[in-house]
């Protein structure tokens, strides 16, 4: 089964060293990509909860990045990566349940 959600989840990772980083743009991009992920599978409640956790950690990461606190920045980046990995595992499970044909799940 093709797992198109992987492309969207990959777009939810931090952009690296960019000069014009925007907290709002990054969080919005993560939210949009998470929504696409959830719309491509039959999400469980665990899947939806993990997507919300990824979004929350993306906000924390963005705020720490803009706050110029390197220790906190590294911790929030790790927390975002861990939440994303947990969501990836759950999305894998959800994708084995079949591709969603018509859904309205929202993060």
DSSP strand tally: 0
- Described by the principal axes of the CA atoms, the overall outline is elongated
Into which percent range does the helicity of residues fall? 55-70%
Sheet-strand content, in percent, reads under 5%
Please, how many helices? Answer: 4
Computed structural class:
mainly alpha
End-to-end distance: 24 Å
Largest sheet: none
Radius of gyration: 14 Å
Return residue spans where pLDDT drops below 50 for at least 5 consecutive residues: 99-107
Helix and strand run: HHHH
Mean residue pLDDT? 82
- How many domains comprise the coordinates? 1
SSE topology:
Layout: H1 5-10, H2 23-39, H3 45-67, H4 70-96
Describe the 3D structure.
- By secondary structure, this protein is mostly helical.
- It contains four helices and no strands.
- The longest helix has 27 residues.
- The C terminus is likely disordered.
Brief synopsis:
The chain is mostly helical and 107 residues long. Helix content is 68%, strand content 0%. It has helices spanning 5-10, 23-39, 45-67, 70-96.
List keywords for this structure.
107 residues, 68% helix, disordered C terminus, mainly alpha, elongated
């Amino acid at each position: 089964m093709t797992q198109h959600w992987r492309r969207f989840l990959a777009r939810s990772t931090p952009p690296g060293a960019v000069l014009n980083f925007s907290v709002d743009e990054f969080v919005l991009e993560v939210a949009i990509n998470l929504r696409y992920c959830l719309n491509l599978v039959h999400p469980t409640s665990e899947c939806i909860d993990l997507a919300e956790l990824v979004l929350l950690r993306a906000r924390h990461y963005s705020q720490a990045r803009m706050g110029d606190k390197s220790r906190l920045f590294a911790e929030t980046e790790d927390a975002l990566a861990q939440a994303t990995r947990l969501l990836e595992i759950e999305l894998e499970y959800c994708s084995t349940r079949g591709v969603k044909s018509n859904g309205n799940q929202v993060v």
